[in-house]
Amino acid sequence: MNVSEIIGLKITEIRYNYIYQNGYDMQEFFAYLKLSNGSIIEIPQIFDSEIDKDEELSKIFSKAKKPNSKCKTEIENQKIIDIHFWLEEEESHMEFKAYLELENGNFVTEMNYGPIGLTTVDLEILTKADFEKFKTELDEGLKIKSYLIELKNVC
């Protein structure tokens, strides 16, 4: 399944894994999304990538933690209506995960790694206004582009 095929699907359940200190002395966070078609995915990074049905991801999902009720309310049972990808010099940026635009107006991404005590590794949920403001404050050369509006016909 191409990453664009998750657009229109609902997130039926979210879970996560958090490691306070990994083998590189960094914090680590990964969210796992169960979609209405039964697929379990991570938040994508690259706009032209494939999502394979992964049994290992299903095992990880079954053992992962459930988020708090506020997080579940803002994400679960919401349709993904677009995906916004990070680009640097018009190429996919490998450091950041995409933003999933949900039908309730929220934008969801995650920060995966960071030094202990210096950064927050977690889900990030932004309103549309906060997301649009954030996009105006990016470093030169970095952009966030909508798959449906700006990237769909590129590949």
Describe the structure.
With 155 residues, this protein is an alpha+beta fold. The protein has four helices and ten strands; from the N terminus they run E-E-E-H-H-E-E-E-E-E-E-H-E-H. Strand 6 (99-102) and strand 7 (107-110) form a beta hairpin. It starts with 9 loop residues before the first strand and ends with a helix.
Strand content: 35-45%
Structural classification: alpha+beta
Helix content: 10-25%
Mean pLDDT: 89
Number of helices: 4
Quaternary structure type: single chain
Distance between the termini: 15 Å
What is the H/E string? EEEHHEEEEEEHEH
Summarize the structure.
The protein has 155 residues and is α+β, with helices and mostly antiparallel strands. It is 19% helix and 35% strand.
Describe the secondary-structure layout.
Layout: E1 10-19, E2 26-35, E3 40-41, H1 55-63, H2 69-75, E4 78-88, E5 91-92, E6 99-102, E7 107-110, E8 113-115, E9 123-126, H3 128-136, E10 142-146, H4 147-151
Antiparallel strand pairs: 1-2, 1-4, 2-3, 2-8, 4-5, 4-6, 4-10, 6-7, 7-9
